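Crash report, auto-generated. Payload:
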Amino acid sequence: MARPVWTGSISFGMVSIPIRLMPAVKKKSISFNQIDDQTMSRVRYRKVSEATGEEVATEHIVKGYDMGAENYILITDDDLAPLAPAKSKEIGLETFVPADDLNPLMFDASYLIVPDKTPKPYALLATAMAGSGRVGIGRFVMRQKEYLAAIRSDGTYLTLSTLVFPDELVDIGTVDGFEALDDVEISDKELLMAKSLVEALSEDFQPSEYRDEYRLAVEKIIEQKAAGQTPVFEDAPAAKAKVIDLASALEASLREAKEARASHPSATSAAAKKPPAKKARKSA
Amino acid sequence: MSPPDAATPDKLAEYQTKRDFSSTPEPPGVVVENTTGTLRFVVQRHRATRLHYDLRLEVDGVLVSWAVPKGPSLDPARKNLAVKVEDHPYVYGWFEGNIGSGYGKGDVVLWDDGWWEPDPEYPASADPAAAIAAGELKFVLHGHKLRGRYVIVRTSRGGGGRSGRSRDDDQWLLIHKKDADAVAGWDPEDHLRSVLSNRTNPDIVAGTPGRWPAPTKAELRALDTMGEKGQWTVAGETTRLTNLDKVFMPGRGTAEPGRGTAAPGRGTAAPITKRDIVRYYAQIAPWMTPYLAGRPVNLNRFPDGIIGAKKGFWHKAVPTHAPPWIRRWPNPRAGTDETREYLMVDGAPALVWAANFAGIEIHPWTSTAANPDQPSYALIDIDPGPSTTWDETLTIARLFRVAMQQLDLVARPKVTGQRGIQIWIPVRSGYTFQQTSGFVEALSRTVGRVVPELVSWQWHKNERRGLARLDYTQNAVNKTLVAPYSLRPAPGAPVSVPLEWDELDDPKLTPDRWTIRDVLPRLAKIGDPFVAITGVEQDLPAL
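Recovered output after restart:
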């Protein structure tokens, strides 16, 4: 089994729910190593001093905050120690807010909340939250850092998403380009067209239909190369002409059927299939 | 939910690097969590370079596998060589088909399956993974063909060859113990048929549809003479039937459902009872085999018939009260709020059970349980609107016929038994639903442009101005169309019936022309037009 990233409890009111957090996402991007193509050996990073060009030992590397103009303020671990959040094994739920109030841009990493030791309080919270349309908001400390978190329930399972702090979101007012929207005018007709386009393309979200085609293609290249083959690239289909052929064939068949019906209501044309002689009964 | 076991990501690495999943019908698969409480075993008969049987035991989320050249047996005198091969994914346990090229080229049938357990008398086998690592596992098989206590024991483990360890050297012996299930002289080659589809290996290569056995005359007589309820045995399995004389649908040409009752005993006007439905599904079983075998099935249930209840409800999960011989498929990727165990129909008994469970409509998946992401068909669904006439539906269907001719595609239409027509296009292995749905959308839009006055692309029904919809969105995993030869919930019990293309020109054709009473005579007379699309492997052209 995968290891939990955090173990502790959710607390709210007088209740404490022992839980474990497991990653909800397993990233599958492919990573490459850097290789020197002359010696076929790995390329390594080394930390060197700008002054001497020599490698610097780990114990001599300290943190410096850039004040500009090559001025740095040195910050030691001792400076930071008093600020470290108190080690805590609790996610304190402070409030339950409407899910729609949360800006989706704030969602950061996602975790599955797994009941630890006793499942009952977990099930109680999951059931109580279900259908409320609300998410629990709280804070907790993981790996010496304090996180803001949102807890959701689907009726059976609880999940947790860490949230970025609101002041970490980019202020839209500071981004160039949006001002062009100020002078746009939209006619009712244009809006109607755009809306019908949205509706025509509306369907239920099917997550299983989306996959990382790029990663799959890279994996295939690796597989083929590993097997000693030259990678084969499938060309994008370029057979646009066929659509026109097909459309004209369809038009032609329709015309033939109509002509056959108009000129020989009772005869069977060899080319056009004979339509039903009389209107068929409409069924329930 | 079944997250892959992160601690052992390499279990299936060897399996996966040996195969090209864009062309093999075999599934990629993941390590799964066991949610059924029992361990699955399968034996596949594989005519590869050399004929062999693959024995696969579920251990820790994968199928630990041995190739057994002479096949497993019930005969304790046979000590069968077994060569250990790479672990296979859990869903491989439902695979049968033709591997056209590449690794393992050849045809595979699911020769036996069931559940297994470590032999309780041997504590050393209680942890199967450790026992296999140590070279000896004692176990008990509960299958359709294989039953009883076995031992598999390693005799040599490579290292002898010049190039170091070779897989062929990982040799074991598979032996059936002398127990109550032992049968002297039992030879697997005398029992060739698939437990899923009743096909043989040559059937798979030839694309011959499987046929489950039909009920015998004596079995049908037992049903006809049964009272309101009773035990009915078909093809060796027994189902408890209930409410057999309950009227599920009025006959044809009678008052609207829910108001008044039908005049009894006059041909098509006679009401349809649950006994009629059970009898129909038992008899149609051989004909439905190619469309149901190896696929998860969703049921549209009408526990009180259609009288008084116009709408049924979807039932996907196999209920806990279903008999143990009902084949269940645990969807390895079911989400937290999704159905976990689906029904897999594997013969007349399962259809009888489903019919008694009031599953009037049967909707199989477009993909197989072995490979849920690979569609077997691209499906065109002509869905008439309220103001679409039958003539107009036929016009659209005939346009698709012209398109199939132009594109040189093998396909056949079927009437839905309600108002529409569908067209089923078989595809080769390796397509995704995204590709089939993209193809059907492009094709449907081309057809739609020729008859814009008949077709609407509006999503909402009430914005379609009563026009027909060409629905390509059913080409998706776990989205289904009604099975060929399934009943439909309407007076007279109409049936969704496959057609030959030229039947679209028959003036007598209506979408609900055939009912529970006249489908079997039709099949006896002209056979199943969909045989033409069974086993066809074809590319979809670019549009």
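Post-recovery validation: Chain B touches chain A through 57 residues (CB under 8 Å).
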